[in-house]
Amino acid sequence: MKRVNLEKIKNLRKKAGLSLEYMAKTLGYESPNGYYYLEIGRGKFPAETLAKVADEFKVPIDSLFFVDKVAKSVTVDEKSKEEVI
Fold first, then answer.
1. Which among 23, 53, 76, 81 is least buried, having the fewest CB atoms inside 10 angstroms?
2. What is the mean pLDDT of residues 45-62?
3. pLDDT score at 66
4. Is the pLDDT of residue 69 over 80?
5. Is the per-residue pLDDT at 42 higher than 60?
6. CA 80 from chain center: how many Å?
7. How far apart, in Å, do the first and last CA atoms of the chain sit?
8. Does pLDDT of 85 surpass 80?
9. Is the predicted pLDDT of residue 34 greater than 60, yes or no?
C-alpha cells in the first residue's frame, strides 16, 4: 500500500529553506497551521495539494510516497529443515 512520506516532504521543505508560512500561502491555506497539520499527519494530503507540493519541490509525485511492504511468510519443515513457502 502506498502512503505519503511525510518525513520526506518535511525534509524537502527544510532543504529548500521554505517556511511553513510560505508553503501554506502557496497551497492556499489561510494560516501555517493548515499546512503544518498535513505535514505532521494530523490531516490527509488531498491529491491536488500533493501534486502542488511535488511541483514546488520539482520532484515526481511518486517520489513523495513510500510502499508499506508486507514480509513474506516463511515456515520451516522441522523434519527436513527445508523452507516451505
1. 81
2. 96
3. 86
4. no
5. yes
6. 43
7. 22
8. no
9. yes
Spatial contact of 51 and 61, defined as CB atoms under 8 Å apart: yes
Element (H, E) at 51: helix 47-57
- CA neighbor of 59 nearest in space, from 68, 67, 51: 51
Q: For residues 77 and 84, what is the distance between their CA atoms, to the nearest angstrom?
A: 7
Q: Looking up cell 491536488, which residue turns up?
A: 48
Q: Which residues are registered as beta bridge partners of 62? A: none
Pairing of strands 65-67, 2-4: antiparallel
User: What are the strands, taking DSSP E only, across 24-79?
Assistant: 65-67, 75-77
The CA dihedral of 65, 67, 62, 48, to the nearest 10 degrees, is -50
Task: Tell me phi and psi for residue 34, to 5 degrees.
Answer: -55, -45
